[in-house]
């Protein structure tokens, strides 16, 4: 399948002038300015097929938004290459801009004092959508996002959730082939998040739009993106299926079991091999215990429990939030080079999953 | 090209629609316009109560100059001013970061930021300016030609045509200077740069000839208030000078190109170092 | 609420001045632009009158007299021009006033503090620019140091008078949305009658009489006329009398407006 986006060793270094406060340093900086360089994106490569839906994850300041801005042409890359829909984004050719939509969850493109309908119409004209097509699109978006009652309202009178729906519709009026969503659900309540998520999934399925999402709500990513790209400190540290990330970062399982009644009240059941097995008690409620155990120690630990005639036990994957927290705090071990290659090759596969 | 004309209409319509959100502003705007007019004419009347000419300009000529001043400002407030203010102003797009959305539009950026916002109430200001111009110019025409040493004697129609040419030059100059100031906002964010224009253009309420040496030269060539207002007014009073007009046209062309370069370098800076 | 019985709170007031000063200094580019725009009108009118006078005189004033008059006016204008009244209306409408009312200080402190801070921030620039202009234009005659003991108190009274009138007008925002129009009228009257458009002595007949009896001249032109030696001792005394009467009158009106306004504001629930 044809690639929608190909990114090769993309790099962005911000150069900012720095000086101490005061007049003398100001004069000094005029004569010999000193700069600090901040590497926001440090050699990222990946490729997306048309119609793929990918989540960018990473802690604050990891370089996700900077990458999206380079993909959309808002920022010049310092080095590296991008080919999106066959264009170099930073040339900002109108024909490229017409094929992308970029939603920034913390910014608004609706005109404050215009009705939503008027704002949409202005966008229609700017993007050169013809009347017939516009009518069709508007009807569809209005239906899917339930905008009927909002079209005649002024943008400044909308609630956060209403505005989020309108903003999303506003980047879709020209039916872009590539959609960049930067925190599309920022600040929304759970049910509104669910609705937007449902819409994005539906839309991607129907139109085969390539979608890149960043979000701090892991549930957005978990429910939408078969593939995630983890960016940390400007570097790509994982690219593949979400499930694989858990194994890679946190090769743990949670073992939950209930203590037998005989053990309650009295002294806690001894766990002699606890240290050797690196099992860690992370939750205890009444008779329920949850231990975090490394994958390779699961069998011995379970065997030990069975030995103590505890039969009611379950083994679970750790929740995604915990995994991500682990990544954000500790980082991910550097992947060997060949593995990165593997990931790249895997990402080129149509379904975007790791082989 | 047609598309851009169409877009002008769309932007105008959009601005009209957004103005209706503030309907109650009408009387306040009208009142302010009348008040300013009263202040300007009152000030002029007070001066002419004590003298019959300033630097060779009589009352009618200065009233015509006031008309030109109000017309140029009115036109600037009608379309270029609001757009550039929305870009570089204190809560403008550069300040809020919404400039990102501007750059994403598949329209030539300079065109878009210049023409996307219209302020319709300025039409009232423009109408008053035209009235002042009409009254003062007809008084000038009635009183016959002004004696100025090196002025070519033009017919009344000729003067009006010259005035239109001078006004076009003036508008290009105003646009270019404003765009340069707005582009400076890419570097000096948070300084109300457009206000600098608003205070400097005030010097145009009177002919540049009244300002002493260096100041006059600066107001003619550096911040060309003279070309923006004095020269069109001279065309009407029949004291214009073709060499000066040609110089103004060259200056306008040069500043227009310079402003486009400034704006583009501003975008380049934004695209290489925004966050 | 008996705000007017709260005794003078100097420490609280100084804290507010400091707060405003810090925030203004941080964005001094903004305020300096403002200051320059306020200097423009007197500067332009100076050139107009100089050009009108040519080599002769108008109403007894020659070129150099106009220059010294308007340069002084520029400084006095900067010192007396309040700005807080433009924002008080917004604060009342947006409800910031409620925060002010929570403080153990009448809201006039907030206004006074911001105006004092603004003057401190702008003064260095204004002084430098005026000095440059004075050198450039040849500041010749006019200033009599002997008049300083009269000039300085009159200048202070002018500051208070100009401030208190604008402040009282701005309180009208508790009743109406049209405060800005009212403030614009005030500005235009100051422009025409206070000695900006012309030294009040050059105003035509009725305007001249009006300027002598209305408060506007005593906010700006009066101190300038004193320091540039345009007034006789008798005229100074009469002027001082009129100035004091207006000051008391407006102060009394302000107290009553404030009391009623706060009652209305708190009754409406902000």
Give a description of the structure.
The complex is a heterotrimer of chains A (355), B (275) and C (270). In chain A, 36% of the residues lie in helices and 27% in strands. With 355 residues, chain A is of the alpha/beta class. In chain A, the strands form three sheets. In chain A, strands 5-6-7-3-8-9 form a six-stranded mixed beta sheet. Chain C is 74% helix and 0% strand. Chain C has helices at 10-26, 28-53, 63-80, 84-94, 96-102, 108-137, 148-171, 179-193, 205-213, 221-227, 233-268. Chains in contact: A-B, B-C. Chains B and C meet through helix 2 and helix 9 of B and helix 2 and helix 8 of C.
Condensed summary:
Chain A is of the alpha/beta class and 355 residues long.
Secondary-structure blueprint:
The complex is a heterotrimer of chains A (about 350), B (about 280) and C (about 270).
Chain A lengths: L2 E16 L4 H9 L2 E16 L3 E5 L6 H9 L6 E6 L9 H4 L2 E5 L11 H11 L4 H15 L14 H11 L7 E5 L7 H18 L2 E5 L3 H7 L2 E6 L2 E7 H8 L2 E7 L15 H4 L2 E6 L2 E7 L3 H10 L5 E4 L3 H11 L6 H11 L8
Parallel strand pairs in A: 3-7, 3-8, 5-6, 6-7
Antiparallel strand pairs in A: 1-2, 1-4, 8-9, 10-12, 10-13, 11-12
Chain B lengths: L1 H18 L5 H26 L8 H30 L4 H4 L2 H5 L5 H7 L6 H21 L13 H29 L8 H9 L11 H10 L2 H13 L4 H32 L2
Helix pairs in contact in B: 2-3, 3-7, 3-8, 3-11, 8-9, 8-11, 8-12
Chain C lengths: L9 H17 L1 H26 L9 H18 L3 H11 L1 H7 L5 H30 L10 H24 L7 H15 L11 H9 L7 H7 L5 H36 L2
């Amino acid at each position: 399948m044809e690639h929608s986006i190909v990114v090769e060793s993309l790099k962005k270094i911000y150069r900012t002038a720095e000086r101490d406060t005061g007049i003398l340093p100001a004069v000094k900086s005029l004569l010999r300015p000193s700069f600090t360089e901040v590497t926001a994106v440090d050699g990222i490569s990946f490729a997306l097929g048309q119609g793929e839906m990918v989540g960018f994850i990473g802690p604050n300041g990891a370089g996700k938004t900077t990458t999206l801005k380079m993909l959309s042409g808002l920022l010049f890359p310092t080095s590296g290459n991008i080919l999106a829909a066959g264009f170099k984004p930073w040339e900002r050719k109108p024909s490229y801009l017409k094929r992308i939509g970029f939603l920034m969850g913390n910014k608004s493109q609706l005109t404050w004092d215009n009705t939503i309908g008027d704002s949409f119409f202005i966008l229609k004209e700017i993007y050169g959508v013809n009347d017939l097509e516009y009518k069709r699109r508007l009807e569809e978006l209005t239906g899917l996002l339930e905008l009927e009652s909002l079209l005649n309202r002024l943008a400044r009178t909308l609630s956060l959730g209403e505005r989020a729906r309108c903003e999303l519709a506003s980047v879709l009026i020209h039916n872009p082939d590539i959609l960049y969503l930067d925190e599309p659900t920022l600040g929304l309540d759970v049910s509104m998040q669910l609705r937007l998520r449902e819409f994005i999934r539906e839309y991607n399925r129907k139109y085969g739009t390539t979608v890149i999402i960043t979000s701090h709500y892991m549930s957005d990513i978990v429910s939408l993106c078969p593939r995630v790209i983890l960016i940390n400190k400007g570097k790509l540290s994982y690219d593949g299926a979400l499930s694989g990330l858990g194994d890679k970062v946190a090769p743990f399982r949670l073992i939950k079991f209930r203590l037998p009644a005989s053990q309650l009240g009295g002294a806690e059941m001894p766990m002699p091999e606890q240290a050797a097995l690196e099992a860690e008690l992370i939750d205890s409620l009444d008779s329920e215990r949850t231990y975090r155990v490394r994958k390779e120690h699961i069998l011995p630990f379970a065997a030990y429990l069975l030995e103590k005639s505890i039969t009611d036990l379950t083994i679970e994957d750790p929740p995604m939030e915990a995994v991500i927290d682990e990544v954000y705090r500790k980082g991910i071990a550097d992947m060997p080079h060949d593995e990165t290659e593997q990931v790249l090759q895997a990402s080129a596969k149509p379904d975007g999953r790791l082989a | 090209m047609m598309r851009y004309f169409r877009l002008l209409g769309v932007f105008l319509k959009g601005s009209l629609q957004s103005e209706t959100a503030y309907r109650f502003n009408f009387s306040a705007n009208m009142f302010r316009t009348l008040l300013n007019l009263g202040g300007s004419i009152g000030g002029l009347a007070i001066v002419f109560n004590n003298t019959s000419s300033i630097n060779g300009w009589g009352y009618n000529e200065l009233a015509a100059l006031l008309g030109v001043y109000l017309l140029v400002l009115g036109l600037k407030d009608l379309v270029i001013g609001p757009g550039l203010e929305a870009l570089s102003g204190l809560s403008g797009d550069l300040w809020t970061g919404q400039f990102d959305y501007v750059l994403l539009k598949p329209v030539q950026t300079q065109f878009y930021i210049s023409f996307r916002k219209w302020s319709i109430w300025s039409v009232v200001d423009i109408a008053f300016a035209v009235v002042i111009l009409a009254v003062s110019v007809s008084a000038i025409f009635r009183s016959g030609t002004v004696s100025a040493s090196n002025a070519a004697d033009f017919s009344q129609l000729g003067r009006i045509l010259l005035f239109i040419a001078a006004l076009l030059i003036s508008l290009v100059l105003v646009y270019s200077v404003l765009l340069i100031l707005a582009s400076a906002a890419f570097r000096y964010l948070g300084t109300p740069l457009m206000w600098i224009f608003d205070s400097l253009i005030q010097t145009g309420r009177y002919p540049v000839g009244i300002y002493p040496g260096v100041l006059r030269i600066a107001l003619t060539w550096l911040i060309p208030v003279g070309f923006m207002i004095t020269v069109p007014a001279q065309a009407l009073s029949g004291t214009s000078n073709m060499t000066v007009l040609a110089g103004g046209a060259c200056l306008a062309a040069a500043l227009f190109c310079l402003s486009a370069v400034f704006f583009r370098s501003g975008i380049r800076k934004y695209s290489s170092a925004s966050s | 609420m008996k705000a007017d019985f709260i005794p003078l709170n100097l420490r609280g007031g100084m804290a507010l001045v400091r707060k405003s000063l810090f925030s203004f200094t941080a964005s001094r580019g903004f305020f300096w632009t403002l200051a320059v725009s306020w200097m423009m009108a007197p500067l332009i009118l100076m050139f107009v009158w100089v050009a009108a006078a040519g080599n002769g005189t108008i109403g007894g004033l020659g070129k150099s007299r106009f220059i010294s008059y308007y340069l002084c006016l520029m400084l006095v204008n900067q010192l007396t021009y309040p700005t807080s009244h433009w924002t008080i209306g917004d604060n009342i409408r947006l409800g910031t006033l409620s925060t002010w009312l929570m403080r153990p200080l009448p809201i006039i402190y907030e206004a006074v503090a911001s105006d004092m801070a603004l003057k401190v921030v702008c003064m260095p620039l204004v002084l430098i620019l005026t000095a440059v202009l004075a050198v450039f234009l040849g500041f010749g005659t006019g200033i009599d140091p002997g008049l300083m003991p009269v000039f300085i108190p009159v200048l202070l009274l002018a500051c208070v008078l100009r401030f208190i009138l604008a402040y009282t007008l701005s309180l009208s925002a508790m009743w109406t949305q049209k405060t800005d129009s009212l403030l614009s009228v005030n500005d235009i009257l100051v422009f025409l009658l206070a000695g900006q458009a012309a030294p009040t002595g050059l105003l035509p007949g009725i305007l001249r009489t009006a300027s002598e009896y209305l408060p506007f001249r005593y906010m700006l032109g009066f101190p300038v006329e004193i320091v540039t030696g345009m007034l006789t001792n008798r005229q100074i005394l009469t002027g001082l009398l009129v100035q004091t009467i207006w000051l008391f009158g407006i102060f009394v009106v302000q107290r009553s407006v404030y009391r009623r306004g706060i009652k209305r504001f708190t009754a409406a629930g902000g």
